[in-house]
Amino acid sequence: MYREEKKQLIAELISDPKLKPMKFRELAGFLQIPKEERSELSEILCALIREGKVAVDREGRYLCDRATHVTGEFFGTGRGFGFVRPEGAGADSDIFIPEEKTLNAMHGDTVMVTVTCEAYEANGRKNRPEGIVTRILSRANETVVGTFGKTKAFGFVRPDNTKLDFDVYISKEHTKGAVSGQKVVCQLRDFGNANKNPEGMVTEILGRADAPGVDVMSAIRAFGIPTEFPEEVLSEAKGVPTEVSEAETEGRLDLRDELMVTIDGEDAKDLDDAVSITKHPDGTYSLGVHIADVSHYVREDSPLDQEAVNRGTSVYFADRVIPMLPVELSNGICSLNEGVDRLALSCLMEIDEKGRITDHRIAETIIRVKKRMSYTCVKKTLSDEEETPADYVAFAGMLRDMAELSKLLRTRREDRGAIDFDFPECKIVIGENGRVEDIVPYDRNVATRLIEDFMLAANETVAEHFFWMETPFVYRNHETPDPEKMMRLNIFINNFGYHIHDSGDTVHAKEIQKLLNRIAGTPEEGVISRLTLRSMKQAKYAPECLGHFGLAARYYCHFTSPIRRYPDLQIHRIIKESLRGELTERRIHHYNEILEERSERSSRLERRADEAEREVERRKKAEYMHRFLGEEYDGVISGVTSWGLYVELPNTVEGMIRMADLRDDFYRYDEQNARLIGERSSRIYALGQRIHVLLAAVDELSSTIDFVPVLG
């Protein structure tokens, strides 16, 4: 019997209402198919599922198609199986794809899936829906970055991305002379199938895997972050004047005599914000936030603008910055350097003694920064314990006024419920040899906070102004968390004696704030803070104003960093056209046409930058910890899974204790309470628990760190 005839017969059999649904073994027995021939039956059933003619229920019984067909992104795991996240859905909607049902999809591919088993609960545990990939709609990995290896007959590339569970075959003529141990970029020529590995050709050799900086360049290539500016972009940048001409100052509000400063890190070169303040006798303040007028030099649809659109944001790594704009602009005419004239957009705010913004003005200005300050020296000036640097003495009064206003603004934000996730962050210190010298805590102090507070005030003021103007705009939205995620968070924190009050389906930011205040200083603070953050939605750019949940703000935008973020540059253009009366119907129509796509692109490129920065940080931390093999540390359990425990050290380094290394007992995974329980000893390992560990292994190629528990 021909294959198609067999398919037709089996499909009719399964759809026969007189027969009850059967499992695979029952179906094979009914058809009297010998064991050695049942692989063909399995292939036919899979084909029928892909075609949407047959489905499988949660018990594994085949029945007439009642399946759901969805399109989404495939997430690989490095262990064969994967998950598909339907378009527009969150992680909670992921569909489990068994190893043999992936159709050779790779991490990031867009696929079509037939859901063969809906989500269900069993033994108190919620199981994900299950599916089968029926078609690959688009491939995400046209190039792969990895480590080159060589045999006598051929070469191969092992991808850096552990979610790509394959080696790429490279024929001898396509190795480009690469040798074993080098990091390379390879172009995929054939995506392979269930019986054959993907095939590719080496297009770039990055260097030996252990050479300084190669790990960063590997990540840059893997995430597709452009490093070189096209010639026409560089040519345009070099043609930009290096000084402000007198003609360019005409029609602008002249603030060159104002006492204003920049406050940044010591190594910052792209200074795009300056601040000025006046405290009045009645206790009110005039605050000026002055932002580099980048849009004056980056004209819409110019080569510079098109390149900025494609980059979306500057990307910051431990040893380098990949800028959105060429250095001729970002470090030159657009940087608010001390003692020189610069064009700016200024948000001038009047603030009362309670921190309320009572009036404001947005204007095109010409400014001249009087002092380039650093966070470190501002902190010293404002600290009673340290001596004010000599060149800051003349500015000490102004800085004290800034600190007072900063506290007022922060208190007012907190009163309305703004959430401040004060995670321990780190700075990776790179030595002259390109190696990691140290990992030190990031110092979030009075100086960094006052700049944060002033920038937030300006961003809110500008967003509200243009919301009521009813002009096209780009807002920074952070939507209310999903009720189901909040419910699960509540179940978890109940184990620690905490609770988040909600009103129906809505949780208020103030409730999250109360939780963070209650856990401050406790052993579980870091874990609960991170789980709370993960339970919230990602902030995004959009032309609609939906408010910012985390800041408890009805109106919010990004106005203050046009050198390094495209949305800021985009709204600067709109602001200037509005100020000049140039927002005609034609321009409004133009912005309505482009802002949706620009916002979505900016959000996507921001996520790419975040992921690349996190990946490099992970690699640098592994490099740093390699020298401390065998040493013991006190840490906190930051994650509990069925395959082991994640442990975070005080320096923010995270590693894993694998289940196989918990050798004192057999441990059962209690998913609902996020803990492991020893069958014999009843020893418990739970989220937030302190634990003493030994650094057992570090794999720099995969950036993995392994601990083992040190039992007392």
Task: Report on the architecture of this protein.
By secondary structure, the protein is an alpha+beta fold. It folds into six domains: 3-64, Winged helix-like DNA-binding domain superfamily/Winged helix DNA-binding domain (Arc Repressor Mutant, subunit A), CATH 1.10.10; 68-138, Nucleic acid-binding proteins (OB fold (Dihydrolipoamide Acetyltransferase, E2P), Beta Barrel), CATH 2.40.50; 143-209, OB fold (Dihydrolipoamide Acetyltransferase, E2P); 231-477 and 549-616, no CATH class; 483-536, no CATH class; 629-709, OB fold (Dihydrolipoamide Acetyltransferase, E2P), CATH 2.40.50. It is built from 15 helices and 36 strands. Strands 16-23-22-19-18-17-24 form a seven-stranded mixed β-sheet. Strand 35 and strand 36 (704-709) form a beta hairpin. The radius of gyration is 29 Å and the shape is globular. The protein starts with a helix and ends with a strand.
- What topology, given as strand order, has the largest sheet? 16-23-22-19-18-17-24
The fraction of residues assigned to DSSP E strands is 25-35%
What composes the largest sheet? 7 strands, mixed
| Regions with little confidence, pLDDT below 50 for 5+ residues | none
**Mind telling me the C-alpha Rg?**
29 Å
Number of strands: 36
Tally of helical segments:
15
Mean of pLDDT: 89
Shape descriptor reads globular
